[in-house]
Amino acid sequence: MAASKKEGDKKVGLTKEEQEAMVERLKEINNKEDGETAVIAKIKEMPEPDKSMAMEIHEIVRKTAPELKPRTWYGMPAYAKNDKIVCFFQSSSKFKSRYSTLGFSDKAMMDEGDMWPVTYAIKSLTAKEKAMITELIKKAVGR
Question: pTM for the whole thing?
Fold first, then answer.
């Protein structure tokens, strides 16, 4: 049943940013553009520091796990194996967050016991974070 909207009720439904992501996803489904080209184009649209972080993560993923194919996913740079998203970068500007994130789907081999993290907040990338991301990508693909 649809939620009722009365005067004074909180706004119900998707935010403007969520609606834009859904529109982007629909475009992606019909898009025949090369994944690498699409990801680089999305990264170039980002403001700094998201743009630099996304490009560095892109380079880490391509070097560490060349079997992951770049593609966009809800307008975000993502990397897939057998057409299934393994990981993705969400810029802080996408949903007006105070940090960007590197996320892993259930297709990533991140399991550690009964509970484990699948999303990592990123405010900047130093050598320490780059090394950690490299190890996370290796783990995600089962290395």
Answer: 0.80
Read off the CATH number of the domain in which 71 is found: 3.90.1150.200
Token pair in block for residue 6: 């009365």
Q: In what order do the strands lie in the sheet with 84-90?
A: 69-73, 76-81, 84-90, 100-104, 119-122
| Coil, strand or helix at 72 | strand
Q: Is residue 11 part of a domain?
A: no
Handedness of CA 42, 44, 50, 53 (dihedral sign): positive
Collapsed DSSP state (helix, strand, coil) of residue 34: coil
Number of domains in the chain: 1
Residue 128 lies in a domain: yes
| Structural domain range at position 79 | 39-140
Would residue 142 be called left, alpha or beta, if left means φ above 0 and alpha means ψ between -120 and 50 degrees? Answer: left
pLDDT in tens, 20-54: 777 777 776 666 668 999 999 999 999 999 999 99
d(CA 51, CA 39): 11
- pLDDT recorded at residue 1: 41
